[in-house]
C-alpha cells in the first residue's frame, strides 16, 4: 500500500508538469511566432516479482511473469515548430517566414540569437531591430530619406528615396535553419539559442537550401490552438484527480490495516 502512494505521487507530479506546460501555451496564445510545447511521458522501471519466462516447476515457465509498474514521469517537452497563421499588418518592416527558418539577431553579449518573430522596427540609426532593440543580422540600414521599403520573398530589401524613381537595394536578409529545431534552447523574448541537440545553424538565402520565403507586411501568429489546449488541460486535471483518489484509497486501506492490528 505504501508503494501505491508513491506511484500515485509520480502520476500527480507528471500531470502537474502537463498543466504547467499547457498554461504556458495558453499564456502565449497571442505571442507572435510562439511555438507550443508538448510533454512526453514515460513509465518508470517496473518491480519484477517473477520474471517473464522464469521456471514455474515441472519443466514449464511463466508465460507473463509478474511485474508491477512504479509510476510515470515527464521525459521531455517537445516544442512543435509547425507553421503559424499569418496576420496582415501592412507595416513594411513586419516580416513573416513561410516555411522553415529563423531570423538572426545580435544579443547583448555579442552572440547570435534566433527568432521567428519578424515584428521589426527602425531605430534612431535607421537599422532594423527587434522590439527589444536587438540588431537584425545581416545588418540592414534604411536611409532616412526613404519613401518606400520593399522586401522580396528572397530577402532582398530595396528602398525608394525622394528624388529617385528607381528603387535601390540596401541589403539582403539571410535565414538560418537547424537539423533539429526542437533541440533549440528557449531563452525568452521570442529568442532561441543553438545547442548540441539542435545542431549548428545552416544559413542561406530565403527560399533556398530548405529555408522558407518572406512575406512583407505580415506577422506569424502563435501556433497554439486554444480548444486543443483546453482539452489537454481537462484531461490532465481529470488524471490528477484520479491519482488523488488513489492516494486517498491507499491511505484509507492503511488506516483499516492499522485499526485491525490494534483491535
Shape: elongated
Structural class: alpha+beta
Main β-sheet: number of strands, strand sense, barrel status?
3 strands, antiparallel
What is Rg? 27 Å
Low-pLDDT runs of 5+ residues are none
Mean pLDDT: 92
Number of strands: 22
Termini separation comes to 20 Å
Number of helices: 2
- Into how many domains do the coordinates divide? 2
Quaternary status: single chain
Q: Strands of the largest sheet, in order across it?
A: 10-9-13
Strand content: 25-35%
Helix content: 10-25%
Give, in order, the helices and strands. Answer: HEEEEEEEEEEEEEEEEEEEEEEH
List its salient traits:
22 strands; elongated; three-stranded antiparallel beta sheet; 24% helix; single chain; 2 domains; 263 residues; 2 helices; alpha+beta
Task: Write up what this structure looks like.
The chain is α+β, with helices and mostly antiparallel strands and 263 residues long. The chain has two domains: 2-81 and 224-262, no CATH class; 86-220, no CATH class. Helices cover 24% and strands 32% of the residues. It is built from two helices and 22 strands. Helix 1 (2-27) runs antiparallel to helix 2. The model has no long low-confidence stretch (mean pLDDT 92).
What's the helix and strand layout?
Blueprint: H1 2-27, E1 37-43, E2 47-50, E3 55-57, E4 60-61, E5 66-68, E6 72-79, E7 86-88, E8 95-98, E9 103-106, E10 112-115, E11 121-122, E12 128-129, E13 136-137, E14 146-151, E15 156-161, E16 168-172, E17 175-177, E18 185-188, E19 191-193, E20 202-204, E21 213-216, E22 218-220, H2 226-262
Antiparallel strand pairs: 1-6, 2-5, 3-4, 7-22, 8-21, 9-10, 9-13, 11-12, 14-15, 15-16, 17-20, 18-19
Helix pairs in contact: 1-2
Amino acid at each position: 500500500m505504501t508503494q501505491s502512494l508513491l506511484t500515485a505521487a509520480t502520476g500527480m507530479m507528471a500531470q502537474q508538469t502537463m498543466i504547467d506546460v499547457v498554461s504556458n501555451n495558453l499564456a502565449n496564445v497571442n505571442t507572435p511566432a510562439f511555438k507550443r510545447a508538448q510533454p512526453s511521458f514515460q513509465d518508470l522501471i517496473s518491480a519484477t516479482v517473477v520474471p517473464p519466462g522464469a521456471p514455474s516447476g515441472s519443466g514449464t515457465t511463466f508465460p507473463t511473469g509478474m511485474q508491477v509498474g512504479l509510476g510515470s514521469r515527464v521525459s521531455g517537452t517537445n516544442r512543435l515548430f509547425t507553421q503559424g497563421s499569418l496576420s496582415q499588418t501592412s507595416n513594411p518592416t513586419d516580416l513573416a517566414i513561410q516555411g522553415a527558418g529563423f531570423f538572426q539577431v545580435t544579443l547583448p553579449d555579442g552572440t547570435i540569437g534566433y527568432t521567428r518573430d519578424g515584428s521589426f522596427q527602425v531605430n534612431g540609426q535607421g537599422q532594423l531591430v527587434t522590439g527589444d532593440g536587438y540588431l537584425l543580422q545581416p545588418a540592414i540600414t534604411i536611409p532616412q530619406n526613404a519613401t518606400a521599403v520593399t522586401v522580396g520573398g528572397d530577402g532582398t530589401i530595396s528602398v525608394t528615396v525622394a528624388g529617385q524613381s528607381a528603387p535601390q537595394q540596401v541589403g539582403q536578409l539571410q535565414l538560418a535553419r537547424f537539423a533539429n529545431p526542437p533541440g533549440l534552447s528557449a531563452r525568452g523574448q521570442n529568442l532561441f539559442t543553438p545547442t548540441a541537440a539542435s545542431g549548428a545553424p545552416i544559413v542561406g538565402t530565403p527560399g533556398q537550401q530548405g529555408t522558407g520565403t518572406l512575406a512583407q507586411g505580415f506577422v506569424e501568429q502563435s501556433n497554439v490552438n486554444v480548444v486543443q489546449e483546453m482539452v489537454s488541460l481537462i484531461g490532465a486535471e481529470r488524471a490528477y484527480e484520479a491519482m488523488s483518489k488513489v492516494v486517498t484509497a491507499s491511505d484509507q486501506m492503511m488506516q483499516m490495516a492499522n485499526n485491525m492490528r490494534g483491535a
